[in-house]
Each structure stands twice: as C-alpha cells, then as structure tokens.
Design a protein that fits this description.
alpha/beta; four-stranded parallel β-sheet; 19 helices
C-alpha cells in the first residue's frame, strides 16, 4: 500500500505517533488509508447537505475494509459570485482545488480518494487533482436540487430569478425558486459536469442525476465508500479510466444532453492532466454527428428531476449505446455494459435518436476572422431566427458597462453586444456572463440581439450568446480592435464568426493596439500570468 511509507518500519515510528494522535487504532493501521475530500460549506446550496453524505461515505469505507480521513476543499458558488468581482475567482479556484487534492493526497501517502463535490468549478478541479495524483478515486456528486414550487408552477433558479429582474420580482417567488439543498435544477454547469463524470466512469452508476434529497444518493455515497477498496485491490487508477474513449463518450453525451458550454473548458483541462489533448474542433466534430435528445432548462422546459425519473444517465447511454466507445468505469463494468442495462421510461424527456429535439448536439464551435482559434455557443438554446445574424457592434470593455447599457435601454434590436477584456488573462478569471444575457432575455431582445465575449457564459444562459472568443482581447486577439458600429456576422450553421473588415484593416488596427494594464494582486495576479487561452481549457502553462 502507498500508505506503508508513513506507517511501516522503525523509521516511521514518529509518523505512527502522530497518526495515533488522530484516534486511529493499531488494528486499523493495517487498512488502506482513504482520503475523503469534502467540499462541504454553508455558502453553497449544492453543498449544504454534504454532512449527511460524508457519514454514508465514511460508513462505506469502513464497511469495505478501509480507514477514512476527511480533509476540506474550498468551494465558490457561481450564482452568488455572479455579476461582481467575486466571479473572477471562480475559474481560478478550479486550479486551486486540483493543487489541494494533489498536495494532501501525496503529502499523507493516501491509498485512495473519495471526492465529494457538486458545483461548477469544484467537480472539474477534483477530477483534475485525482487524475494528477493517479491513485484509485471515486467522485460522489451531491445531486440536483428539486424544482421550486409557487402557485402550482414549477420554478428554476435562472428563469425565475435572473431573467425576471427587469419585470420586478415577487419575493415569495424568489424564496421558493431554490427550495433546498442541491445543485440548481437545470442543465447548468454543475449538473452537466455531474452527468459527464458518470459517463467518464469516475462515479458510480446513477450518481449524476440522483437527487440531493434522495435516499438513493445516500446509498450511492455508501456504495462509493465500499467500492474504493475494490479499486485499490485491482489498482484501477484514474489514468486507466480517463482514456480518450472516455472523453469522447463524455463529449457525445454532453452534445446529446445540450449541456453547459463550460465543458469546453473543463474536459480539455481534465484530459490535460492525463496527457491527452482535447481540441475545440473535437467538440464540433462530435456535435455535428450527435442528435440533441433532451430539452432541459435553460434551453428547454424539463428539469433535472425529469431526467432522473426518465432513466438518468443510464437511459441516455442506452439511447447512444451503438455509438459509445468502450471504456472502464469505477463500477468495474465497461460503459457499454452500463448502457446495455439502461432503460428509458419517458420517450419525450429522453427522445429516441430518430426523433431528436435538434439534429445536431448542444455546442457549436465558431471560427472566423473575429475568432481565429475558436469560440463556443450553445446552439440548441438559440432561436432559429438568430442562427444567422448580422448587426452593428456595441463595444464594452467590461461586463458592468454592458449591463448598465442594457438596463438603460441603450441596446437596440439587431445589435451585437461585444464584451471584451473578460478572458482568462484579461479578466482575469474569465467571468461568467449570466447578468447581461439574462438582462437581454428579460428585455425581450433575445430574438434580435446577440452577445459575444472572450469571457464565458453560465450554464444557465440561453439565446445567441457566443463565448470563449480566442485569442482573447488581452492577448491581442481581433476582438480587441472591434470598434463601435463595426458589422459583426454570425453564422452558426456554417460555424462562422466574422467582423466585416478586410485583412489589411484588421492588421492595421492590431498594429496600433496596446495591451491595457491592470493592477492585480494575490491569486489573480498569479493566475493571469500562468493561464492559457480558453480554446486550450484555460489551464496553467508553466515556464
């Protein structure tokens, strides 16, 4: 066992003394040491119920023959951080979490990991960390929140709060929109990543959609604790599970679900930790071949609870079973075996491939002279009338300036709102743009106004919103030289994003461009110096 290096032999007597001080008995010293990385916090609704799940994981570890040690991992709620400087810290926290997993697991010679997570950057950060350490690991995502209820109407976080700000809000509806713990009810980033973690093989079957309030989630937590011991016995490590096939399966399911565009950051970042390169082009290639077979909020009207009761991820896998590539999972079954056992209980919630909601998958990757390295849009959440659009640029150098203009009714039908210097380096931190996109929807302009940015969008965003424009403005990408009134051309079916300027005009403007300076300190200063561009997953580039 790995842990023998801190507990065996006369030279490790001082180490054993410290371990005994934690309360461990001599008999348990011979068992595998399992680290339970918990991201419990009172600050994030998706995480407030984790104390209960911690108990069940710990019971499972001990029942399976291991000894459990808890350690904490920080978490940021993207919804609470949204629309102010706090959002700059969300994406950088992904790298911080990966570093913590690596540091604790190696420093304490752990034999295995259980990663208790749920929300946006925490799940990919934990996956990156365990992939880097490469010891047997299982992820337990804490589960989706139930839909809200108000006056006999089902509510969801984004549609019943952010998108209704302009109209005025009934505070009772605000209170009921998020009725308790769990990740928010739609196919936003947290739930998308939970589903894809199950597809990649790093969670037990059923974990991705089982509700936070359910006894089923407790059983999965318990079973995960037991299962980690079996993975240690078989030395089944993340690098043996997180293969290219696993990532391609995850992207395919993402496209079939119509998930968050943030997966175009997180999947390449996780793959990077195991030495696999995943390009934006692969997302587009798979999307063109994969029908969109669910219609969950924000783009549709179903909720995560509907997906769970319609068959969950096994049901989705069953629909896609002939297209899946073989890969191993923490269940000690292949993904194809799991797919063959899956069942669908509602053909409208999880449609057959022959009757999809859209013929192509959720994400499209656009390129052109405005985004030479690519940009990303959730095409299944765009109205048909806006799939092709041409309009004058309204240029803003920050999210706050754009939001102010939208609320002041300065944006007109047909405009293309351009928000720049919000990329990984330029923000820094690549803030999510739920505030301006929701304001556009709330103003009734989502059928006539587009938004493009080198920042990113919440998984809750819908409408013609194109993010991850690369290269970003701070790196001297063409988005940096867009001027007020320039004509922007968007053609999603043909995957184009262009500015109506000649190559010579673009080159001339870029020759005159100067990088703006920003006073930064702490983690944001370090992040801005190390982070790569969005088209490469916004991972650290070490010199």
């Amino acid at each position: 066992m790995i842990s023998d290096k801190i507990k065996k032999g006369i030279e490790r007597a001082p180490h054993r003394a410290l371990l005994y001080a934690t309360g461990i008995t001599p008999e348990e010293m011979d068992k595998p040491f399992i680290g339970i990385a918990t991201s419990f916090t009172d600050l994030i609704p998706g995480h407030t119920g984790m104390r209960d799940l911690e108990r069940f994981i710990e019971k499972g570890v001990h029942a399976g023959g291991g000894y459990a040690f808890f350690f904490g991992v920080p978490g940021i709620c993207d919804g609470i951080a949204m629309g102010h400087e706090g959002m700059r810290y969300s994406l950088p926290s992904r790298e911080l979490i990966a570093d913590i997993i690596e540091s604790v697991a190696i420093a304490h010679a752990l034999d295995g990991l259980i990663l208790l997570t749920n929300c946006d950057k925490i799940t990919p950060g934990m996956l990156m960390g365990c992939a880097r350490v490469n010891i047997p690991s299982i992820v337990v995502t804490a589960g989706p929140m139930l839909s809200g209820r108000y006056k006999w109407k089902r509510l969801s976080y984004v549609r019943n709060t952010w998108e209704k700000i302009r109209d005025g809000l009934d505070e009772e509806e605000v209170i009921e929109a998020c009725p308790g713990f769990g990740s928010c009810q739609g196919l936003y980033t947290a739930n998308t990543m939970a589903c894809l973690t199950e597809v990649m093989g790093m969670s037990l079957t059923g974990c991705g959609t089982s509700l936070a309030v359910s006894a089923k989630k407790r059983r999965i937590a318990y079973d995960s604790g037991k299962q980690i011991i079996k993975l240690i016995e078989k030395n089944l490590t993340p690098k043996k599970i997180l293969t290219r096939n696993a990532f391609e399966n995850a992207i395919m399911v993402d496209m079939a679900l119509g998930g968050s565009t943030n997966t175009a950051l997180h999947i390449p970042a996780i793959a990077n930790e195991v030495g696999i390169e995943i390009s934006l082009d692969l997302f587009d290639e798979i999307s063109r071949k994969t029908p969109h077979i669910t219609n969950i909020r924000p783009g549709g009207d179903f909720f995560m609870e509907d997906i769970e009761f319609a068959g969950g991820i096994p049901g989705i896998l069953n629909r896609l079973r002939d297209r899946l590539k073989d890969s191993m999972t923490v269940n000690l079954k292949s993904i194809k075996e799991i797919a063959s056992e899956g069942k669908v209980f509602n053909d409208n919630v999880i449609r057959p491939l022959s009757d999809p909601y859209h013929n192509e998958g959720g994400i499209a990757v656009l390129k052109g002279n405005l985004a030479p390295n690519g940009s990303v849009v959730k095409q299944t959440a765009v109205q048909d009338t806006m799939l092709v659009h041409e309009g004058p640029a309204r240029v803003f150098d920050s999210e706050e300036d754009a939001v102010e203009a939208i609320y002041n009714n300065e944006i007109r039908r047909g405009d293309v709102v351009v928000i720049r210097y919000e990329g990984p380096k330029g923000g820094p931190g690549m803030r999510e743009m739920l505030s301006p996109t929701s304001a556009i929807v709330g103003a009734g302009l989502s059928d006539s106004v587009a938004l493009i940015t080198d920042g990113r969008f919440s998984g809750g965003t819908r409408g013609p919103c194109i993010g991850h424009v690369s290269p970003e403005a701070m790196e001297g990408g063409p988005i940096a030289i867009v001027e007020e009134g320039d004509i922007i051309k968007i053609d999603i079916p043909n995957r184009r994003l262009d500015i109506d300027l000649s190559d010579d005009e673009i080159k001339d403007r870029l020759s005159k461009w100067k990088m703006p300076s920003k006073e930064l300190r702490g983690i944001l200063r370090r992040y801005s110096k190390l982070v790569s561009s969005a088209d490469r997953g916004a991972v650290y580039e070490y010199l």
